[in-house]
Amino acid sequence: MDFQRLLNGSTLYNLHSHTQFCDGRDTMDAFARAAVAAGFTHYGFSPHSPTPFRTSCNMGREAVPAYLAEVDRIRSVYGPTRFLASMEIDYLGPEWGPDSPYFRSLPLDYRIGSVHFIPDQDGNYVDIDGSPESFIRKMHSNFRDDIRYVVETFYEHSIAMVRAGGLDIIGHLDKIGHNASHFAPGIEDEPWYTALAHELIRAVAEAGITAEINTKAYERCGRMFPSQALLPLVRELGIPLVVNSDAHYPDRINSGCPEGLALIS
């Protein structure tokens, strides 16, 4: 999708958000009303996709028809904001991701691809996207304190997802850096880490995929994804960018977005 053409220069939009269908903290209707009240031109719903296993964050496959019906209802009720249907689709290896036939068959306006789970050394998928405190506990209990394994696996899966295709936007492409830095301070400055992040960015450029400036953590932690250290390469390679708040609360639909837009203006 050509997001620049879709958005037509708008600075009031959000294409990444979560509601009651996954781990969001309010209804789609509440988010829609907030978007209209704020004068948004475009608003995208992107629940965490179904996965082959049950999680506390992902929507169930049985809920997908109701989710799509709610998008249609909101479109018929609210305006002039343009509401879009998406999913943030988890990549779980070659058999499950944005390129899977199931996700390609859904009537989505666009697809966000993200890595939230990676296999531990025994092959069991573990959520690495939670709070730093949760991440550190899982480093001890699931990953044998091997931070290099975790980081390398995250980037390997992210690159494989990009090369497999099926996604329009890559979600928070260096999110692992935030949690990894709490376990191993300074890790994002290490040459091997930078090399992995650069390899992913080059893969995104080669695939012609849009990257998001994800501002969810900006007000709380003062950082965005990708980090400002990686942004020069993103821009040098001409990767299309959108700014998304990854909102889980209606009052945060534009959180950090003005600052994110300033980085790419």
**Run of helices and strands:** HEHEHEEHEEEHHEHHEHHEH
Mean pLDDT: 97
| Major sheet size, sense and barrel closure | 5 strands, parallel
Question: What proportion strand?
Answer: 5-15%
Q: In terms of structural class, how would the helical and strand content be classed?
A: alpha/beta
Please state the oligomeric state of the protein chains shown.
single chain
Low-confidence stretches: none
Question: Radius of gyration over alpha carbons?
Answer: 17 Å
Looking at this protein, list some descriptive labels.
12% strand; three-stranded parallel β-sheet; 265 residues; alpha/beta; 40% helix
Question: What can you tell me about this protein's structure?
Answer:
The protein has 265 residues and is an alpha/beta fold. It has helices at 3-7, 28-37, 64-77, 101-105, 132-141, 147-164, 176-183, 191-207, 218-221, 231-236, 257-264, and strands at residues 13-14, 42-45, 82-85, 88-90, 112-114, 117-119, 125-127, 169-170, 210-214, 241-244. The protein has a five-stranded parallel beta sheet. It has a three-stranded parallel beta sheet with strand order 1-2-3. It has a two-stranded antiparallel ribbon with strand order 6-7. Strand 4, helix 4 (101-105) and strand 5 (112-114) form a beta-alpha-beta unit. Helix 6 (147-164) packs parallel to helix 8 (191-207). It is globular. The relative contact order is 0.14. The model has no long low-confidence stretch (mean pLDDT 97).
